[in-house]
UniProtKB/TrEMBL annotation:
SMART domains noted in UniProt: S_TKc
Gene behind this protein: LOC107944373
Protein name, UniProt field: L-type lectin-domain containing receptor kinase S.4-like
Location relative to the cell: Membrane
Recorded topology in the membrane: Single-pass type I membrane protein
Amino acid sequence: MLTIFAHSLSPNTTWKMLRISLPLLLFLIVSPSSSSQPTEFFFSGFKHLIDPNSLTLADVAEIEKNGVLRLTNHTHFLQGHTFYSSPFKFKNSTDGRAFSFSTTFVFGIAPDLISGDGFAFIITPSKNLKASSGQYLGMLNAADLGNLSNHLVGIEFDTVQNLEFKDIDDNHVGIDINSLVSNASVAAGYYRQGSSTKQNLSLKSGKPIQAWIDYDSIDNVINVTIAPSSKRPTTPILSFHVDLSMFLNEFMYVGFSASTGQLASSHYVLGWSFKINGQAQTLDLSSLPSFSRPPKKHTALTVGMSVSSANLVLIVLSVVIYFMIKMKNVDMVEDWELEIGPQRYTYHELKQATDGFSNKTLLGQGGFGRVYKGTLKNSKPYVAVKRASHESKQGLREFMSEISSLGQLRHRNLVQLLGWCRRRGDLLLVYDFMANGSLDKLLFDNPKTTLNWDHRFRIVKGVASGLLYLDEGYEQIVIHRDIKASNVLLDDELNGRLGDFGLAKLYEHDSNPGTTRVVGTLGYLAPELFKTGKATTSSDVYAFGALLLEVACGRRPVEHKALPEEMVLVDWVWEKYRQGRMVDVVDTKLQGQNNESEIMMVLKLGLICSNDVPALRPSMRQIVLYLDGEAELPENLGPPAAFDGDVEEALMLHDSLV
Ligand SMILES: *[C@@H]1O[C@H](CO)[C@@H](O)[C@H](O)[C@H]1NC(C)=O
Ligand SMILES: *[C@@H]1O[C@H](CO)[C@@H](O)[C@H](O)[C@H]1NC(C)=O
Ligand SMILES: *[C@@H]1O[C@H](CO)[C@@H](O)[C@H](O)[C@H]1NC(C)=O
Ligand SMILES: *[C@@H]1O[C@H](CO)[C@@H](O)[C@H](O)[C@H]1NC(C)=O
Ligand SMILES: *[C@@H]1O[C@H](CO)[C@@H](O)[C@H](O)[C@H]1NC(C)=O
Ligand SMILES: *[C@@H]1O[C@H](CO)[C@@H](O)[C@H](O)[C@H]1NC(C)=O
């Protein structure tokens, strides 16, 4: 058998070592063998590889000058892969049983502002994975999840909690077989020698961590152990019983896979050893190269040289001038902002993306500011950049602290927040671009194209499921506060997606901290908001009810030009309901479509949601059941929910708020 030891040198000791021990370092052991099948390897750093072809780097993976293997960088939606170039024989060809194996490696995860996705040690049948970035960790894609013909075994070191894959937290180690739903997982940590108390260990601390993975084919168990140093704990953090014989092919590749998503981390491997049927050679962290976190976008300028005083004056002067010029354009970043994800863009990037916020790229103007169409590097073809200005630092800061959680909200019926930028009082938010604009444009004021009922029904069902996710699907309840047709955006397949969630909160506080004002749009505002000023999931339900009515009636919730009795949509629909003439309110453009029962159901549901009494409104979950036809609407719609205030007064109040 042929065994190759590929040693490498740490950068600072290179020259000294080369002089004294060149022959020792570059050794190559060739033992007599009948086949040239490798059974082990050892990389103490990745510099000066004896066989430069021993590793296959794919996608963005790179070996840096100092011998660190970098799988990804801080750019989003990347994948990085590295494999040992030759496959290993993982199974006995006579009896088909998997062999034992052992591997150890030292890795580091350096997050950008907040951490992106993690990485994995993988055993795969091929070096060409048809995988996706983001939560798929570069291992699999949405179509092949769980497929037995993947023949994929991975040990994931995951730094994002993905509910879709039932992740336990945002800092865990898991064993994945053919799927990203781990067969077993545990919060990252380790047991100190002789201690049975688990020590927590942050995977994304930006410090090196050593991992040991051992598979025993007699006991059929995989053990995973991690530690912040090369002192190997005796007790593994994760132990999983499985016979890998049925999952592995006879020949398999071993390697690493990492990805970035909306948020990004850089993933590094500093050293790696592996062996089939035996213990992998030990790695010593202290002899490995070290990685430095990639520079943040804003680091202080350091001048590190000795200069004569004349030169110094010159340098200081030019630095001052440089900054004076630069200051005009630069975003001043405060400490608290650095803790915020998702992706932070520079003002310059966004300015460039939108052609200097030119009118040519202006998509529209909403309550919270102007929206521009933009093109960013390394991103989807188009993004929407919303520019909101705000004077209150207090409200801004509070909102910013929510951005990191808003950025993690992922649902097909929400407009994805991709990133942000703040420049003085300007807040710039980057969202997915929605090809078909907002729903109001296709509903009101005789639009060029009209939506048929099937489209409309699918849109409201989509919005309901997005709201249910805001309500229940995420670790904290997110109240939208401004649900209305112009905040429902339509993607290229006319799916309804809710935009601007959380943004209304920014405007609830005026410069006087402690006071709260009602924000939203008249006609969508639940009556209790005028009394309490406190938005709740139930006030969101009220606004959703108004949305249902407008979709079925094809008009705004408050129509100043309408007859007095028709001015407030919900009152008018109630009145017609009482008269048993609800068909009168249906959008005339929907006439002749055979969906009357569905339209009536949506109108009644709109009325139920618009009840004056919050407790009598259904929950989002109940609404989704009604819309999916899995529950029947109650016969009696309850007490009529009219806007019991004076309309004129409300309008005045509204005008004073906007
Ligand atoms: C990350 O890698 C990609 C692909 O190699 C490259 O285009 C991009 O500029 C890199 N980003 C950074 C921040 O280094
Ligand atoms: C493969 O399995 C056969 C039958 O169990 C056994 O005799 C042989 O030693 C095994 N070979 C290896 C390399 O383990
Ligand atoms: C592990 O999970 C995969 C995919 O979910 C499943 O096919 C497999 O049976 C599981 N294996 C074990 C041993 O639980
Ligand atoms: C599993 O993958 C194989 C090969 O790609 C494919 O032929 C098969 O249809 C897939 N099975 C399922 C259930 O998707
Ligand atoms: C470890 O983390 C868990 C959950 O994150 C936490 O409850 C526990 O207090 C932590 N333990 C220590 C010793 O920090
Ligand atoms: C796995 O861990 C268990 C529990 O500590 C231990 O008894 C067993 O020997 C370990 N097996 C391997 C292959 O490391």
